[in-house]
Amino acid sequence: ITEKRLAHIFTEFSESGSDYEHQGTGLGLPIVKQLLDQMDSEIILNSTRGKGTEASFLLWFDLPQGINGQVEEKTVSKFSFQHKNILVVDDNKINLLVTKKTLEKHGAHVTVANSGMEGIELAQKRRPDLILMDINMPGMNGYETTEKIRSNGITIPILALTAVEREKIMIKNTNNLFNDFIIKPYKNEEFLQLISNHLQRSRIRSTV
Fold it and tell me: Could you give the C-alpha distances from 111 to 75, 122, 126, 140, 144, in angstroms and in order?
């Protein structure tokens, strides 16, 4: 791979520079990069045109030790979404996969929707505990999708996922469609904490 094309190799469906007209890197490398980013690591590529490419990364894990080096029981995460159903609406397949894996790691049951229309149908059918809604989607954007979901009588927390500045989103959120906002790129800890907060508030309201 040429040095010039290495700079774009983590872009979705980027061209690899081979002689095949439609050859590309697809989704594999972008997914790997995002997963490593969430684990505070990075992927390193060493490539020589015509010879080959080597990819490497380094991950660090804490290993609790018991007596005589025996591994003790696993450390429990402070975030637990057991028995919680979360709907993620996003047209970006990489974002869907990464978000789904992150939430499932903490016990959530995750349903994904690739469009606004699909999100409306699944929100009505599955009745999730919380919805993560991407703002910028083709066809029906996050505002329109959320407005339709709210019109169906669904009052659960809906959190907007967006790369737009928070102030701009708040101005457009005049009807209080969204309960909160998650600004991309976000830190994993903050992302999970915000979801946890809204799930807890929702549970308290439902028991009052």
Answer: 27, 8, 9, 19, 20
